[in-house]
Amino acid sequence: MRRDLLHYKESFERCDQERDQFRLKIDQLEQRVEELSDLLNMELQKGYASEQDKARMRGDCESQLKQMEREYTLKMGEKERELLMVKSELLRSQESKEDVNVGQKKALIKAETDALEYQQQIKTLTHIIDGFQAQLKEVDLLEERLEAKSQECENLSDDIEALKEQIMLYKYRLIPTKGLTESDQSGSSTCGGVTEQEIIRLAQQNRQLNSDVSALKRRLDDMTFKQQRMQNAYKKGSKDLDFENHELKQSVVSLQRQLSDAQDRIHHLEESLKLNVFIPHQQSQQQTQDNQKQHSRIVELEAYCKELHQQLLKWAQLDASCALHLNRMEGRVGYGGNSSLNNAMISE
């Protein structure tokens, strides 16, 4: 844009130079016409002008006027083309600048939308990670319960061993040591110092202990199976949770990187908008002055064209005046030889 303005400024300066040269040429022609008019008046007074001299002077004036008209037409066409080019370039520059600003604003809006979307995705993944952390806490609670069950199983195993020892002791106590004896004074039979009621009671206790041991074994097997299943589920869940947690962390890192890129892009677009909007706004006065200068140049060129048109009208009037003088000369001056007018025309 700045380069185009400099180019147009140079074009205007060149037009000014050409206008000055053209005005100088017009002044020279006017001076020549005045000299010719004075010379004609002198010759008219002396009566020495011939038809050939009058015809040649008329032809010179007409040829010069036609040359001036051709030059004026060419100059007017060039200046009008330059004016149209300047106006079209200015309009195209403004449109391109507006297109750039609109594109940058659209890119900024898109970047802000992407940033909001990334932030929403990060929030969603954060909620998911919080849910997995809550599940990990539940797994920790399950581990504590599993340890408690394991301790309970160990305690039950100890109880079973103790019951086995008691059973063995009862069995050893039931072994006959002295044989069968007669009934004692109370009427009860004995076997190795153990009464029949004690044997019955011990047998009942033995059956009860056997049933308790069987129940404890079943409970131990059930607890062992549950413990194994919980350990397998815990291992599998831990692996799945670790894998999902790793993937979520990678997703969060990727989204954070995309968010950072989007923020950088927003910052870059904001800086670009500042350069293309705020700085030109600060320099708007200078550009306004340049536009005013260009407008004044255009007005000057239009005035210059009008001035050229007036000059052509003036030349037309001069041509008519010359023709009138020549007609008068034809009516008042007779035929004669070459005079000082011919010498002046030849010297010029």
Annotation keywords:
single chain, 348 residues, mainly alpha, 2 strands, 1% strand, rod-shaped, disordered C terminus
Care to describe what's here?
By secondary structure, the protein is mainly α. The chain has one domain (2-347). The protein contains 5 helices and 2 strands; from the N terminus they run ααββααα. The longest helix has 123 residues, at 51-173. It is rod-shaped.
Number of alpha- plus pi-helical segments: 5
* Proportion in β-strands: under 5%
Q: Percent of residues in helical segments?
A: over 70%
Q: Which structural class do the helices and strands define?
A: mainly alpha
Largest sheet: 2 strands, antiparallel
Radius of gyration: 62 Å
Tell me the distance between the termini: 51 Å
N-to-C series of helices and strands: HHEEHHH
Low-confidence spans: 175-194, 333-348
Mass-distribution shape = rod-shaped
Q: Looking across the biggest beta sheet, what order are the strands in?
A: 1-2
Query: Total domains, how many?
Result: 1
Count of distinct strands: 2
User: For the residues shown, what is the average pLDDT?
Assistant: 68
